[in-house]
Design goal:
alpha/beta; Rossmann fold; seven-stranded parallel β-sheet; globular; binds 1,4-dihydronicotinamide adenine dinucleotide; oxidoreductase activity
Amino acid sequence: MKTIVITGSASGIGAATAQHYSAAGCRVIGIDLRGADIEADLSCASGRDKAISEVLQRSNGHIDSLICCAGLGGNHPPALVASVNYFGVTVLLDGLFEALRASGGNAVVVASVAATQGNWDGHPLREAFLAGNEEQARTLATDAGHGMLAYAASKHAIVCHIRAQSKIWGEAGVRLNAVAPGAVETPLLQQSMDDPLIGKATRDFLPPLGRRAQPAEIAQVIAFLASDAAVYVHGSLLVADGGIDAMSRPQRF
Ligand code: NAI
C-alpha cells in the first residue's frame, strides 16, 4: 500500500487530494492546523519539526509521495504568508527527502499561476527566500505592504527552489514537481473574493475556459504528477489554470 503525505489536507485542494488517494486505497497521512492526522503549524520551526518527526514515525521512514498543499492567500499578514508558503514547504521537503528516497518516491508542490506573473529577477524578497533567510523574508514581505506581494513572491520563489533542487533530487531518484493552479473554488479563494482591496477584481475575473476550477480537478493533476504516468517529468511546473498564464503572457513561457 502506498503512503502519501499531504499538507493542508483539511481543506480545499489538499482535502480533494486526500480523498483521491483514500479512494484509491492508499494510506494518507494528512497534516494541517486542525482536522488532520498530524496537527502542526507549518508557519514555525517547532510545528515543522513536529510534522516531520510524526510523519517519519507513522511512515517508518518510507513515503511514496509528499504533496505540499498547505498555503495562505494574500489576505493574510505578509510575514505569515512568507513563512507558510515558502519555508513551510522547503523545510518539509528537506526533512522528508530521505524517506522519499527510501521508497524511490516523489514530491509535488502546489504553487500558483501567480508564480509566473511579474518580474522577480534580482528582487530582494526573492533572494531572501532563496537564501533560506526566513527572518529577512518576513521583514521584506511586511515592508512590501499587501500580502498579495508576499503571496506572489513566495510562489515564484518556491518554483525557483524546486528547479534549483532538480539535480540533487534527480540524482537521488526522487522526482520533484510543482503545479500552478489559477482560480480554484476553495475557502482560500473565497477569502480573496471577500478582501476589501482585491475582492472585486478576484470576483470579476474569469479564466479563458470561462469558469474556475474545482479542487478535485487540481487533485487529478497532482495525482498525475505523482504517478508512474509522469515517471520522466521532473523539475517541472505544470500550469493548470484554465488558460490564465497563456492569456496574460502569450509570448513568454
Ligand atoms: P484552503 O484554504 O482551502 O486550504 C489550505 C489549507 O492549508 C487549510 O486547510 C489550512 O488550514 C492549511 N494551512 C494554512 N496555514 C497552515 C499552517 N500554518 N500550518 C499547517 N497548515 C496550514 O486553500 P486551497 O485553495 O486548497 O490552497 C491549497 C494550495 O493551493 C495553497 O498553497 C494555495 O496557495 C494554492 N493555490 C490555490 C488557488 C485557489 O484559487 N484556491 C490558486 C492557486 C494556488
